[in-house]
Design a protein that fits this description.
Elements lengths: L1 E4 L10 E4 L6 E6 L2 E6 L13 E3 L2 E3 L6 E3 L15 E2 L1 E4 L2 E5 L8
Antiparallel strand pairs: 1-10, 2-3, 3-4, 4-8, 5-6, 6-7, 9-10
Pfam family, one: Rieske
Organism: Pseudomonas deceptionensis
Family: Belongs to the bacterial ring-hydroxylating dioxygenase ferredoxin component family.
């Protein structure tokens, strides 16, 4: 399932936005023109990741400093902790986040 991102929610390079389709909180990042989408909730204790410190494609959780790779979703230097990440597609200028059907709240 693809969710269309409204134009005003598509971040400019170096920026990020919070997008909440169907009650889910997703953070959308633009790193040097490439878009990344992740759950906004840190898998450690649920803190928001959207407002964290961004270095390249690494986001740092504000609460406890955990750092996640936006491309893979994994905690840096580990495969034990992962934030859900989603493919982002651009079709004819429209940005879509690709979600599995079971992710959406019904």
């Amino acid at each position: 399932m693809r969710i269309a991102v409204p134009a005003e929610k598509v971040p400019a390079p170096g920026m990020r936005t919070l997008f909440e389709p169907a009650g889910n909180s997703l953070a959308l990042f633009n790193v040097a023109g490439k878009l990344y989408a992740i759950d906004d909730s840190c898998p450690h204790q649920g803190s928001s990741l959207c407002g964290g410190r961004l270095e390249g494609r690494v986001i740092q959780c504000c609460a406890h400093g955990l750092r996640f790779d936006l491309a893979s979703g994994y905690l840096l230097n580990s495969t034990r902790l992962k934030v859900a990440n989603y493919p982002v597609e651009v079709v004819d200028g429209q940005v879509f986040i690709v979600l599995a059907a079971q992710v959406l709240a019904v």
